[in-house]
TrEMBL record:
Molecular-function GO term, any one: transaminase activity
Keyword Transferase on entry: yes
Family designation: Belongs to the class-III pyridoxal-phosphate-dependent aminotransferase family.
InterPro entries per record: Aminotrans_3 (IPR005814), Aminotrans_3_PPA_site (IPR049704), PyrdxlP-dep_Trfase (IPR015424), PyrdxlP-dep_Trfase_major (IPR015421), PyrdxlP-dep_Trfase_small (IPR015422)
One Pfam family matching this protein: Aminotran_3
Protein name, UniProt field: Taurine-pyruvate aminotransferase
UniProt KW DNA damage keyword: no
CDD domains reported in the protein's UniProt record: OAT_like
Alphabetized UniProt keyword annotations: Aminotransferase, Pyridoxal phosphate, Pyruvate, Transferase
Membrane-spanning ranges: none
Length: 463
């Protein structure tokens, strides 16, 4: 790979893209005068665009996905071999890779038992929502249908998952939404001053207690589940403060509320453990995952439950409506679990969980050093190789910088050949956090190149 391409060979691709592709999360008006970006090739931590320019990817494919890096021949071969043997059969029957990966996955998730294959993180979350609603009818006479979700959290782009969307700019203009989804306050200590009554100390316990207040307000006999990200992703890379998760678990047990942990971003190594919830001693009833499960080499998502949840759907086999009457077409595609098996093997054999922790510590140290140098950085936070740096106009008031300035930092880094992320069209007037999620294979040199690029960009954008 030398990073060079004949631009004329790709001109037709660019024009076809401009004429026919509807890109994700992008306003297309600028493409009337500017070329869309085409990513042509990837290797390790780096990708090349249609002009042959090399970029260090600090966001794992743009959306926290390519955990083991680009160009993994062994994953591609595993997928090819499986597709030649059996590409697909509906998941009403089993498959060899489906069974093998489920066994591998459950081995990494003590207390969990059953894997439901599906197409995407959004759909995995919808499966959990449907199960929660069906349990309400089967066990509680139609009560306990309400699902609590947290301000700033994100669970998907379908209408049902947007009903549980804690990012108001993501959900704007797409309502009305499904009923019985109820928001609880965020747990972001850096912005606790924006929450009425938040204490100076023990904020984590207080933030969890706000969930109990919502349960009591709604009525404990109406609340079926609580859905949370272990580390809030697109809402600002937010790790819950000390005391939060223990109290959350206590509240769920007290009121017979099922705990649904959305690991679509954090799952399969991103925080330095197999799953983010394992950092905090949580025992969930549902765990959903997608992005890093196969590192983007094939589409796969999973909704994982305990045996106790599974048993609720088989306890009365005489009821023709009592089982989970659901299907996900491409949950039967064998490429996903085949890729996931090899992806998991790579993480284990190359000790990437430890590398994630080590390189995450290095990046956190680098970002903290940048915070000392640049007053525009108000806070750095995160876990493992999942970090954020919040930009503020004033550290005292914590007033966010204008979104255009945060975007200018991203653009400057891009010009330097480093791709970083930023919260985007998520929280009104709060899209001011730079986001970092390099692949778990990142080296010390990679980490330093990323933070050096941010250093230079901050200096140019803010002077």
């Amino acid at each position: 790979m030398d990073g060079t391409f004949n631009e004329n060979d790709l001109s037709r691709v660019v024009e076809a893209d401009r004429a026919h592709i509807w890109h994700h999360l992008i306003q297309h008006k600028p493409f009337e005068t500017n070329d869309p970006r085409i990513i042509v090739e990837g290797k390790g931590m780096r990708v090349w665009d249609q002009k042959g320019k090399e970029h260090l990817d600090a966001v794992s494919g743009g959306v926290w996905t390519v955990n083991v890096g680009y160009g993994r021949e062994s994953i591609c071969k595993a997928v090819y071999d499986q597709l030649m043997k059996l590409c697909y059969f509906a998941n009403t029957a089993g498959s060899i890779p489906g069974s093998n990966f489920a066994e591998m996955l459950i081995d990494k998730m003590p207390g969990m038992s059953r894997v439901y294959y599906t197409n995407s993180g959004s759909e995995a979350n919808e499966k959990a929502f449907k199960m929660i609603r069906q349990i309400a009818h089967k066990k509680y006479g139609g009560k306990k249908t309400k699902i609590l979700y947290r301000d700033r959290d994100y669970h998907g782009s379908t209408l049902a998952t947007m009903s549980a969307g804690g990012q108001d700019e993501r959900t704007a203009q797409y309502g009305p939404f499904a009923p019985d989804f109820v928001r609880v306050p965020h747990c972001m200590e850096y912005r606790k001053h924006e929450l009425d009554g938040a204490p100076v100390e023990n904020f984590g316990e207080w933030a969890a207690d706000q969930i109990e207040e919502v349960i009591l307000r709604e009525g404990p006999d109406t609340v079926g589940a609580l859905c949370l990200e272990p580390v809030t992703a697109g809402g600002g890379v937010i790790e819950a403060p000390e005391g939060y998760w223990q109290r959350v678990q206590e509240i769920c047990k007290k009121y017979d509320v099922l705990l649904h942990i959305d690991e679509v971003v954090c799952g399969v190594g991103r925080t330095g453990t197999w799953f983010g919830y394992q950092q905090y001693g949580i025992k969930p009833d549902f765990v959903t995952m997608a992005k890093g499960v196969a590192s983007g080499y094939a589409a796969i998502a999973c909704m994982v439950t305990t045996e106790e949840v599974f048993d609720m759907f088989k306890e009365d086999a005489s009821d023709p409506m009592g089982y989970f009457r659901d299907i996900s077409t491409f949950g039967g595609c064998t490429a996903g679990p085949a890729a996931a098996i090899e992806n998991m093997r790579i993480i284990e054999d190359e000790n990437l969980l430890q590398n994630c922790t080590d390189m995450g510590d290095r990046m956190m140290g680098n970002l903290q050093a940048l915070m000392e140098k640049h007053k525009v950085i108000g806070d750095v936070r995160g876990k493992g190789l999942f970090l954020g740096a919040e930009l503020v106009a004033d550290r005292g008031s914590k007033e966010p910088v204008d979104e255009k300035l945060a975007q200018a930092v991203v653009a400057d880094c891009m010009a330097q050949g480093v791709i970083i992320g930023v919260t985007n069209r998520s929280i009104p007037s709060r899209n001011n956090t730079l986001c970092f999620s390099p692949a778990l294979i990142a080296t010390a040199d990679d980490i330093d190149q990323i933070t050096d690029a941010v250093d230079g960009a901050l200096g140019r954008v803010f002077g």
